[in-house]
Amino acid sequence: MTWGEIFFGFHGRINRKTYWFASILAGIAGLSFNALLAYLATGDPLAPEVWQRPADKNEIWAPVWLAYFLFLAWPSAALAVKRLHDRGRPVWIWYAYYAGAFVLTLVPLRNTAGAETSQAAGIFAIILMIFAAYIFFELGVLRGAVGPNEHGEDSLPPGYYGGDYSFWSWMLALEGRISREKWWRGFFILAGACFAVTVLSALLLGAFGARHPELDLANPDWLDSPQAKPLLLPLLALITIPSLVYLFALWSFVALGVKRLHDRDLSSWLILVVVLPFFGALASPAIAVTFDLGESLISLAFLLLMASAIWSVLQFGIFKGDTGPNQHGPDPLAGRG
Predict the structure, then answer these.
(1) Does residue 272 register a pLDDT over 90?
(2) pTM, two decimal places
(3) CB atoms < 10 A from the CB of 145, how many?
(4) Based on the structure, what is the number of domains in the chain?
(5) Alpha-carbon distance 295 to 280, whole Å?
(6) S-S: 86 plus which of 10, 144, 215, 292, CB 3.0-4.6 Å?
(7) What letter does residue 150 receive in the DSSP assignment?
(8) Whole-number Å distance between alpha carbons of 16 and 172
Protein backbone atom coordinates (compact mmCIF):
# COMPACT_ATOMS: atom_id res chain seq x y z
CA MET A 1 0.00 0.00 0.00
CA THR A 2 1.43 3.37 -1.05
CA TRP A 3 1.45 6.42 1.23
CA GLY A 4 -1.17 8.01 -0.98
CA GLU A 5 -3.47 5.05 -0.36
CA ILE A 6 -2.66 5.13 3.36
CA PHE A 7 -3.61 8.80 3.73
CA PHE A 8 -6.46 9.02 1.24
CA GLY A 9 -7.73 5.53 0.40
CA PHE A 10 -10.71 3.87 2.08
CA HIS A 11 -9.98 0.26 1.12
CA GLY A 12 -7.83 -2.38 2.75
CA ARG A 13 -6.26 -2.75 6.19
CA ILE A 14 -3.40 -1.12 8.10
CA ASN A 15 -1.77 -2.16 11.36
CA ARG A 16 -1.25 -0.04 14.46
CA LYS A 17 2.31 1.01 13.65
CA THR A 18 1.27 2.39 10.26
CA TYR A 19 -1.76 4.09 11.81
CA TRP A 20 0.25 5.82 14.54
CA PHE A 21 3.07 6.89 12.23
CA ALA A 22 0.64 8.28 9.64
CA SER A 23 -1.50 9.95 12.34
CA ILE A 24 1.54 11.73 13.80
CA LEU A 25 2.56 12.95 10.34
CA ALA A 26 -1.01 14.12 9.65
CA GLY A 27 -1.12 15.88 13.04
CA ILE A 28 2.16 17.71 12.34
CA ALA A 29 0.87 18.71 8.90
CA GLY A 30 -2.39 19.92 10.42
CA LEU A 31 -0.69 22.05 13.06
CA SER A 32 1.67 23.47 10.43
CA PHE A 33 -1.34 24.30 8.26
CA ASN A 34 -2.99 25.97 11.24
CA ALA A 35 0.15 28.02 11.92
CA LEU A 36 0.25 29.08 8.27
CA LEU A 37 -3.38 30.22 8.40
CA ALA A 38 -2.69 32.06 11.66
CA TYR A 39 0.23 33.83 9.97
CA LEU A 40 -1.90 34.77 6.96
CA ALA A 41 -4.70 36.03 9.20
CA THR A 42 -2.63 37.95 11.76
CA GLY A 43 1.00 38.03 10.62
CA ASP A 44 1.98 35.80 13.56
CA PRO A 45 1.94 31.95 13.36
CA LEU A 46 1.55 31.79 17.16
CA ALA A 47 -1.07 34.52 17.40
CA PRO A 48 -3.04 34.30 20.68
CA GLU A 49 -6.10 35.43 18.72
CA VAL A 50 -6.01 32.01 17.00
CA TRP A 51 -4.41 29.52 19.39
CA GLN A 52 -6.10 30.74 22.58
CA ARG A 53 -9.47 31.32 20.83
CA PRO A 54 -10.58 34.30 22.94
CA ALA A 55 -14.28 35.14 23.02
CA ASP A 56 -13.81 38.59 21.47
CA LYS A 57 -11.78 37.28 18.49
CA ASN A 58 -14.27 34.76 17.14
CA GLU A 59 -14.13 36.23 13.63
CA ILE A 60 -10.39 35.37 13.47
CA TRP A 61 -9.98 31.98 15.11
CA ALA A 62 -13.27 30.34 14.08
CA PRO A 63 -12.50 30.22 10.32
CA VAL A 64 -8.91 29.11 10.98
CA TRP A 65 -9.91 26.20 13.23
CA LEU A 66 -12.75 25.21 10.91
CA ALA A 67 -10.25 25.05 8.02
CA TYR A 68 -7.92 22.97 10.21
CA PHE A 69 -10.79 20.61 11.03
CA LEU A 70 -11.66 20.19 7.34
CA PHE A 71 -7.98 19.83 6.37
CA LEU A 72 -7.67 16.71 8.54
CA ALA A 73 -11.14 15.29 7.83
CA TRP A 74 -10.20 13.15 4.81
CA PRO A 75 -6.85 11.68 5.98
CA SER A 76 -8.07 11.04 9.52
CA ALA A 77 -11.19 9.28 8.18
CA ALA A 78 -9.12 7.25 5.70
CA LEU A 79 -6.76 6.07 8.45
CA ALA A 80 -9.60 5.29 10.87
CA VAL A 81 -11.63 3.36 8.30
CA LYS A 82 -8.69 1.12 7.36
CA ARG A 83 -8.00 0.42 11.03
CA LEU A 84 -11.65 -0.47 11.58
CA HIS A 85 -11.39 -2.77 8.56
CA ASP A 86 -8.35 -4.35 10.21
CA ARG A 87 -10.33 -4.85 13.41
CA GLY A 88 -13.39 -6.15 11.54
CA ARG A 89 -15.53 -3.33 12.92
CA PRO A 90 -18.22 -1.28 11.08
CA VAL A 91 -16.98 2.06 9.77
CA TRP A 92 -20.03 4.00 11.00
CA ILE A 93 -18.32 3.96 14.42
CA TRP A 94 -15.80 6.52 13.18
CA TYR A 95 -18.31 8.70 11.34
CA ALA A 96 -20.56 8.81 14.41
CA TYR A 97 -17.62 9.90 16.57
CA TYR A 98 -16.42 12.50 14.05
CA ALA A 99 -19.92 13.95 13.70
CA GLY A 100 -20.19 14.21 17.48
CA ALA A 101 -16.79 15.93 17.68
CA PHE A 102 -17.87 18.43 15.01
CA VAL A 103 -21.10 19.20 16.87
CA LEU A 104 -19.15 19.76 20.07
CA THR A 105 -17.01 22.39 18.31
CA LEU A 106 -20.15 24.52 18.06
CA VAL A 107 -20.24 24.89 21.86
CA PRO A 108 -17.33 27.40 22.01
CA LEU A 109 -19.06 29.38 19.24
CA ARG A 110 -22.16 29.67 21.43
CA ASN A 111 -19.98 30.86 24.29
CA THR A 112 -18.35 33.56 22.16
CA ALA A 113 -21.82 34.78 21.23
CA GLY A 114 -22.60 35.27 24.91
CA ALA A 115 -24.66 32.13 25.54
CA GLU A 116 -23.81 29.84 28.41
CA THR A 117 -23.01 26.17 27.84
CA SER A 118 -26.09 24.11 28.64
CA GLN A 119 -26.13 21.10 30.95
CA ALA A 120 -27.05 18.95 27.96
CA ALA A 121 -23.87 20.06 26.18
CA GLY A 122 -21.81 19.10 29.23
CA ILE A 123 -23.40 15.64 29.36
CA PHE A 124 -22.84 15.24 25.62
CA ALA A 125 -19.16 16.13 26.10
CA ILE A 126 -18.77 13.43 28.77
CA ILE A 127 -20.43 10.82 26.53
CA LEU A 128 -18.18 11.86 23.65
CA MET A 129 -15.09 11.51 25.86
CA ILE A 130 -16.10 7.94 26.72
CA PHE A 131 -16.71 7.25 23.02
CA ALA A 132 -13.29 8.78 22.24
CA ALA A 133 -11.62 6.40 24.70
CA TYR A 134 -13.30 3.47 22.96
CA ILE A 135 -12.19 4.77 19.54
CA PHE A 136 -8.63 5.19 20.86
CA PHE A 137 -8.44 1.55 21.89
CA GLU A 138 -10.03 0.30 18.66
CA LEU A 139 -7.75 2.29 16.38
CA GLY A 140 -4.49 2.57 18.26
CA VAL A 141 -4.23 -0.19 20.85
CA LEU A 142 -5.95 -3.44 19.89
CA ARG A 143 -4.57 -5.91 17.37
CA GLY A 144 -6.40 -6.40 14.09
CA ALA A 145 -8.33 -9.54 13.21
CA VAL A 146 -6.01 -12.53 12.90
CA GLY A 147 -5.79 -13.78 9.33
CA PRO A 148 -7.63 -12.49 6.25
CA ASN A 149 -11.08 -10.92 6.41
CA GLU A 150 -13.40 -9.34 3.85
CA HIS A 151 -11.13 -6.28 3.61
CA GLY A 152 -7.88 -8.08 2.82
CA GLU A 153 -5.00 -10.05 4.24
CA ASP A 154 -3.77 -9.73 7.82
CA SER A 155 -1.89 -6.44 8.17
CA LEU A 156 0.75 -8.14 10.33
CA PRO A 157 3.33 -10.66 9.08
CA PRO A 158 2.38 -14.38 8.90
CA GLY A 159 2.97 -16.13 12.21
CA TYR A 160 3.08 -12.84 14.14
CA TYR A 161 2.28 -13.26 17.83
CA GLY A 162 3.91 -10.18 19.32
CA GLY A 163 6.67 -10.78 21.83
CA ASP A 164 10.12 -10.13 20.40
CA TYR A 165 9.18 -10.60 16.75
CA SER A 166 10.94 -7.31 15.94
CA PHE A 167 12.20 -4.26 17.83
CA TRP A 168 8.82 -2.54 17.45
CA SER A 169 6.96 -5.63 18.56
CA TRP A 170 9.28 -6.06 21.53
CA MET A 171 9.00 -2.44 22.68
CA LEU A 172 5.45 -1.48 21.68
CA ALA A 173 3.14 -4.46 21.05
CA LEU A 174 0.68 -5.59 23.70
CA GLU A 175 0.56 -9.19 22.47
CA GLY A 176 2.86 -12.14 22.96
CA ARG A 177 5.46 -13.08 25.54
CA ILE A 178 8.97 -11.96 26.42
CA SER A 179 11.55 -13.37 28.78
CA ARG A 180 12.95 -11.75 31.90
CA GLU A 181 16.13 -10.92 29.99
CA LYS A 182 14.14 -9.05 27.33
CA TRP A 183 12.21 -7.15 29.99
CA TRP A 184 15.37 -6.06 31.80
CA ARG A 185 17.02 -5.06 28.52
CA GLY A 186 13.98 -3.04 27.47
CA PHE A 187 13.73 -1.48 30.93
CA PHE A 188 17.32 -0.24 30.87
CA ILE A 189 17.00 1.05 27.30
CA LEU A 190 13.94 3.11 28.28
CA ALA A 191 15.37 4.25 31.62
CA GLY A 192 18.60 5.29 29.92
CA ALA A 193 16.74 7.17 27.20
CA CYS A 194 14.56 8.99 29.75
CA PHE A 195 17.59 9.89 31.88
CA ALA A 196 19.53 11.20 28.87
CA VAL A 197 16.56 13.23 27.62
CA THR A 198 15.94 14.65 31.09
CA VAL A 199 19.56 15.75 31.53
CA LEU A 200 19.77 17.18 28.01
CA SER A 201 16.45 19.00 28.40
CA ALA A 202 17.51 20.48 31.74
CA LEU A 203 20.76 21.73 30.20
CA LEU A 204 19.02 23.21 27.15
CA LEU A 205 16.24 24.83 29.18
CA GLY A 206 18.80 26.20 31.65
CA ALA A 207 20.87 27.67 28.83
CA PHE A 208 17.73 29.08 27.19
CA GLY A 209 16.64 30.69 30.45
CA ALA A 210 20.14 32.14 31.00
CA ARG A 211 20.05 33.73 27.55
CA HIS A 212 16.54 35.10 28.12
CA PRO A 213 16.22 36.32 31.73
CA GLU A 214 12.99 38.09 30.78
CA LEU A 215 11.14 34.74 30.71
CA ASP A 216 8.11 34.86 33.01
CA LEU A 217 5.98 31.83 32.13
CA ALA A 218 3.84 32.17 35.26
CA ASN A 219 2.58 35.57 34.11
CA PRO A 220 -0.31 35.37 31.57
CA ASP A 221 0.18 39.01 30.61
CA TRP A 222 3.82 38.37 29.71
CA LEU A 223 2.82 35.35 27.59
CA ASP A 224 0.59 37.63 25.51
CA SER A 225 3.20 40.37 25.23
CA PRO A 226 5.30 41.11 22.11
CA GLN A 227 8.46 40.15 24.05
CA ALA A 228 7.21 36.59 24.50
CA LYS A 229 6.28 35.82 20.89
CA PRO A 230 9.77 35.14 19.47
CA LEU A 231 10.59 32.89 22.47
CA LEU A 232 7.50 30.69 22.53
CA LEU A 233 8.23 28.53 19.47
CA PRO A 234 11.76 27.40 20.51
CA LEU A 235 10.54 26.98 24.08
CA LEU A 236 7.62 24.86 22.88
CA ALA A 237 10.04 22.66 20.93
CA LEU A 238 12.25 22.21 24.01
CA ILE A 239 9.20 21.02 25.97
CA THR A 240 7.39 19.02 23.29
CA ILE A 241 10.23 16.79 22.10
CA PRO A 242 11.07 15.40 25.58
CA SER A 243 7.35 14.94 26.25
CA LEU A 244 7.03 12.74 23.16
CA VAL A 245 9.97 10.63 24.36
CA TYR A 246 8.32 10.23 27.78
CA LEU A 247 5.02 9.19 26.17
CA PHE A 248 6.84 6.62 24.05
CA ALA A 249 8.63 5.32 27.14
CA LEU A 250 5.39 5.15 29.16
CA TRP A 251 3.68 3.08 26.46
CA SER A 252 6.75 0.84 26.16
CA PHE A 253 6.93 0.23 29.91
CA VAL A 254 3.29 -0.85 29.84
CA ALA A 255 3.82 -3.03 26.74
CA LEU A 256 6.85 -4.76 28.29
CA GLY A 257 4.93 -5.41 31.51
CA VAL A 258 1.89 -6.81 29.69
CA LYS A 259 4.05 -9.25 27.74
CA ARG A 260 5.74 -10.42 30.94
CA LEU A 261 2.30 -11.00 32.48
CA HIS A 262 1.44 -13.04 29.39
CA ASP A 263 4.64 -15.01 29.83
CA ARG A 264 3.50 -15.90 33.35
CA ASP A 265 -0.03 -16.64 31.98
CA LEU A 266 -1.54 -13.84 34.06
CA SER A 267 -4.24 -11.34 33.07
CA SER A 268 -3.14 -8.22 31.19
CA TRP A 269 -5.36 -6.17 33.50
CA LEU A 270 -2.86 -6.73 36.32
CA ILE A 271 -0.80 -3.98 34.66
CA LEU A 272 -3.17 -1.61 36.49
CA VAL A 273 -1.33 -2.59 39.67
CA VAL A 274 1.55 -0.59 38.17
CA VAL A 275 -0.28 2.10 36.20
CA LEU A 276 -2.78 3.30 38.82
CA PRO A 277 -0.25 3.91 41.65
CA PHE A 278 2.00 5.75 39.17
CA PHE A 279 -0.71 8.20 38.12
CA GLY A 280 -2.00 8.34 41.69
CA ALA A 281 1.40 9.54 42.89
CA LEU A 282 1.48 12.20 40.17
CA ALA A 283 -2.02 13.44 40.99
CA SER A 284 -1.85 13.17 44.80
CA PRO A 285 -0.29 16.62 45.50
CA ALA A 286 -2.98 18.43 43.47
CA ILE A 287 -5.77 16.32 45.02
CA ALA A 288 -4.42 16.92 48.52
CA VAL A 289 -4.39 20.69 47.97
CA THR A 290 -7.79 20.80 46.27
CA PHE A 291 -9.61 18.83 48.98
CA ASP A 292 -7.39 19.93 51.91
CA LEU A 293 -6.37 16.34 52.71
CA GLY A 294 -2.90 17.15 54.00
CA GLU A 295 0.35 15.29 53.42
CA SER A 296 -1.06 11.93 54.55
CA LEU A 297 -2.61 11.36 51.11
CA ILE A 298 0.72 12.08 49.42
CA SER A 299 2.53 9.71 51.78
CA LEU A 300 -0.04 6.98 51.12
CA ALA A 301 0.23 7.48 47.35
CA PHE A 302 4.01 7.15 47.39
CA LEU A 303 3.81 4.12 49.71
CA LEU A 304 1.50 2.44 47.19
CA LEU A 305 3.90 3.42 44.41
CA MET A 306 6.82 1.76 46.21
CA ALA A 307 4.77 -1.40 46.80
CA SER A 308 3.82 -1.39 43.12
CA ALA A 309 7.49 -1.04 42.10
CA ILE A 310 8.49 -4.02 44.25
CA TRP A 311 5.63 -6.09 42.81
CA SER A 312 6.70 -5.08 39.28
CA VAL A 313 10.31 -6.14 39.74
CA LEU A 314 9.23 -9.50 41.14
CA GLN A 315 6.62 -10.23 38.46
CA PHE A 316 8.47 -8.85 35.46
CA GLY A 317 12.14 -9.29 36.27
CA ILE A 318 12.46 -12.15 38.77
CA PHE A 319 9.74 -14.79 38.43
CA LYS A 320 10.09 -17.28 35.59
CA GLY A 321 7.42 -17.54 32.91
CA ASP A 322 5.40 -20.61 31.95
CA THR A 323 7.36 -23.50 30.50
CA GLY A 324 6.18 -24.28 27.00
CA PRO A 325 3.55 -22.47 24.89
CA ASN A 326 0.47 -20.90 26.43
CA GLN A 327 -2.52 -18.94 25.08
CA HIS A 328 -0.31 -15.90 24.40
CA GLY A 329 2.32 -17.58 22.24
CA PRO A 330 5.39 -19.82 22.30
CA ASP A 331 7.81 -20.01 25.20
CA PRO A 332 10.40 -17.22 24.66
CA LEU A 333 13.03 -19.54 26.22
CA ALA A 334 12.24 -22.47 23.92
CA GLY A 335 15.35 -23.89 22.27
CA ARG A 336 17.78 -22.43 24.79
CA GLY A 337 20.07 -24.70 26.71
Answers:
(1) yes
(2) 0.78
(3) 16
(4) 3
(5) 14
(6) 144
(7) T
(8) 10
